[in-house]
Amino acid sequence: MTWTPLLDGPGRVAGWRDERNPLAPGWRLEVPPADAGPARSIAAETAGAPPAPFVVLWSGSLARAFGDADPGNWMAAGQHAVERLVAHLEGVTMPGADRILVQPHARHCLSDVPSVLRVLAQDAGPRARPGLALSPLSLLEAPMLADVEDHLERILERLGPLARAVIIEARSDAVPGGAPDAARLEALAAARIDAMIPATVPRLRVGRSIGSVGCPAAPGAVADAVTVRPYNPVRP
What is the pLDDT of residues 49-81, one digit of tens each? Predict the structure, then answer.
């Protein structure tokens, strides 16, 4: 499996993102790399990092290839699957983690403002619902970049109050101009985030991914026993 560190400054890991599809058959929650674990030798940028308060999961997709678009994601099958995932994660805690966050994506089941509000803004009662890791650029496809400032403002206006963390990351598959355009978009997104999101909400950048250093959550390592069972979403 692959973990991506989310940095709030040079060498400071504020969270880990699990790059797997949580709606794939057989998926289950995993424990991210520990401070003293293999991450030290595999990625120098994480050396000495304290336990990360955020564990970020993608909202998931029904597509055969994780990065592909699938109309089923935005129909009943996809919406039921992500609702079941979120219910599965309610009340779960991870070792050293403040909370599990879910990151939407334009090609996943949580793909836009209405779907995020419908699923993540609900009151789960005493069992805390997973929080929102908001990467506004992840919600934009290439044709939307012509009006990127308007889209960013609408996303941040509606979803900013719900975000527990914001991720400044341009999607490589949605930036025709490559790295220069990605850097420009990230600078634009960072400026809009600073203007519209309170400074108390962490701003995260994406570090170098680390492969095969996670381990399955074990009994006693996670507060809720539901996390040690395989999670098999309903597939169409």
Answer: 444 578 899 999 999 888 888 999 999 999 999
131-134 and 2-9 strand pairing: unpaired
Report yes or no on 63 lying in a domain.
Answer: yes
**Which amino acid appears at position 87 of this protein?**
A
Q: Is the dihedral of CA 70, 75, 76, 82 positive or negative?
A: positive
3-state secondary structure of 129: coil
Which three-class secondary structure state does DSSP give residue 168? strand
Count CB atoms within 10 A of the CB of residue 140: 22
Does residue 170 belong to any structural domain of this protein? yes
| Residue 118 neighbours by CB under 8 Å, 6+ apart | none
Instruction: Using a cut of 0.70, tell me whether the model's pTM lies above it.
Output: yes
CA 31, distance to chain mean position in Å, is: 15
- Which is it for the CA torsion 103, 107, 113, 119, positive or negative? negative
Is the pLDDT reported for residue 108 higher than 50?
yes
Q: Tell me how far apart the alpha carbons of residues 70 and 119 are, in angstroms, rounded to a whole number.
A: 19
The 10s digit of each residue's pLDDT in 87-101 is 888 877 666 566 789
Note whether 183 and 150 are within 8 A (CB).
no
DSSP state of 202: P
**How far is residue 52's CA from residue 161's CA, in Å, rounded to a whole number?**
22
Task: Give residue 47's domain range.
Answer: 2-228
Tokens of 189: 């997104």
Eight-state DSSP code of residue 136: G
